[in-house]
Amino acid sequence: MNPAALLEQPLPKPRRDLVGYASARALEALLEAQIALRFLEEGYTRNAAGKAFQAWRALTAALLALERDRIVEMLGEKERKWLEEVGVPRVPSSRLKPLARLVEEAAGVPYYTHLTSTALELHDYQYHGPDPSGELSKYPDRGEAARDIASILGKLAEIVEEQVKPRLESQGKWTREHQEALQRLHEKLREMSRHHRD
């Protein structure tokens, strides 16, 4: 199945199939990351920043779903209800940092909150573009944004490989599509780093 068709499929409902939802979001993260790198190669840095942000948000959704049991133990009743009804299914951008903190604590992903701050800065860059004054965007030029896009997508690939893949494999929810998408992402990232060294 082609990536566009995979991205357009309806998501499993997290309340009914939490692991299926995590699996779908992980695949979305990998496919969006590939699109981001393609945009970056073609010089569309703002579009690449938007796709990198979407990929990171999808990864956050997958990790929230996979770590839900640990996370709910850390929360009060009201926060649990919000997590179940809004946090996991919607992953609102406005609450991405507190959700990232939960992922960092529950899954033990180092610097996840810090990396999420970078993803949010890329989200701003998508809307405002480069801003030498630093008022609307943290990026003075497209080169700075491009470096952060490549860096955050490298981290995404690493987190999927080390944290998400083993969990989904153990539940029988890591598919051939996941494996191929992860391999393609690793290849693209290697190509990019070789290209920048040359």
How would you portray this structure in words?
The protein is mainly α. The protein has one domain (16-197). It is built from 9 helices and no strands. The protein has helices at 3-7, 18-41, 45-66, 68-73, 77-90, 96-107, 112-128, 142-170, 176-197. The chain starts with a helix and ends with a helix. Residues 167-192 have a biased composition (Basic and acidic residues). This is PaREP1 family protein. Pfam families: PaREP1. Residues 167-198 are annotated as: Disordered.
Number of helices: 9
CA-based gyration radius? 16 Å
Number of domains: 1
Portion in beta strands: under 5%
DSSP, total strands: 0
| Head-to-tail CA distance between termini | 35 Å
Form type: globular
The helicity comes to over 70%
Describe the main β-sheet briefly: none
* Overall pLDDT level: 95
Order of helices and strands: HHHHHHHHH
Q: Decide which structural class fits the backbone.
A: mainly alpha
User: Low-confidence parts lasting 5 or more residues at pLDDT below 50?
Assistant: none
Pfam families: PaREP1 (PF05942)
Region (Disordered): 167-198
Organism: Pyrodictium abyssi
Biased composition (Basic and acidic residues): 167-192
Task: State the gist of this model.
The protein has about 200 residues and is mostly helical.
List keywords for this structure.
about 200 residues, mainly alpha, 9 helices
Topology of helices and strands:
Layout: H1 3-7, H2 18-41, H3 45-66, H4 68-73, H5 77-90, H6 96-107, H7 112-128, H8 142-170, H9 176-197
